[in-house]
Structures are given as structure tokens and as C-alpha cells.
Amino acid sequence: MRVGVGGEHCRVDELPATSPALPRRPPEVSGRGDYYALLHRGERGAAYAVWSTSLRQHLPVIAVPTRAPRPDTPLDLQAIVAPAYRRGHYDIAIDYGTPVPPPPLSPADAQWLAERIAAWRV
Fold first, then answer.
1. How far apart are the C-alpha atoms of 1 and 53, rounded to whole Å?
2. How far apart are CA 68 and CA 39, in angstroms?
3. H-helix or E-strand containing 85?
């Protein structure tokens, strides 16, 4: 999944840590999690703000930049994705019996996911 929020001199992207869409991984994400959201405010040499998560955690609340002097606006990604999943009937539309698309899950996450799907189907 990729979520982009564009603005004047900023961009927020959420990408899997192993995504080929991010050709050069910023050093700020090293060892931070399986999935992460990055914010780069556009100043040359500025560090990325990083919000990380794993498959087993809720999506993070990230900062959406606004124009000065206003503070950043918090954006709760889980609060957006969860109702979209329910309203979109993805529980019916997705075939949870097929393999997970890339990037591959770790063996522990694959087992955790299989257990969650089995419990959900009961």
C-alpha cells in the first residue's frame, strides 16, 4: 500500500520496508520495523521523520505538514484504513487462501497471519 500526501516542498509516503519503490532506503529507517511512513520536509540535507510499524501492530498516527506557523496535523492511518476495509467489504473481496503478495512475510508473521485468518473464519 502506498499513501501519498503532497504539499509545497513535502511528501509523506507509506511503503513496505522492502519496497522496490524506495530505491535508496534512508538511514533513519534502518531496523525500525517492517513497514514505515516517512516525512521529508524538503530542506536539502534534512533528516526524515519516521513512523514504523509491523504487521501485528496498528498503523501509526503520522504528522501531516501544514504551512507555518500552524503545527503539523496528526493523521491516524489506522482510523482511516479500518473503516475503509469494512465499508469496502474487503473481507469478502480478498481471497485469504492465496499466498501473500510481496514482500514475503517472516515465518513468524506468516504463522501469526494464518492463525488470525483461521480464527476469523470460525
1. 13
2. 16
3. helix 77-87
Beta bridge partners of 11: 6, 40
* Identity of residue 91: D
Q: Are 11 and 40 in contact (CB under 8 A)?
A: yes
Widest Cα–Cα separation across the chain: 53
Angle value at C-alpha 24, between 21 and 28, nearest 5 degrees = 110
Closest CA to 99 of 114, 78, 89: 114
CA distances from 97 to 36, 75, 82, 118 (A): 26, 32, 21, 10
C-alpha cell at 101: 503478495
Q: How many CA atoms lie within 13 A of 29 on its CB side?
A: 25
pLDDT digits (tens, 9 = 90+) for 33-91: 788 888 887 777 778 888 988 889 999 999 988 888 999 999 999 999 999 989 999 88
6 burial type by CB count under 10 A (0-12 exposed, 13-18 middle, 19+ buried): exposed
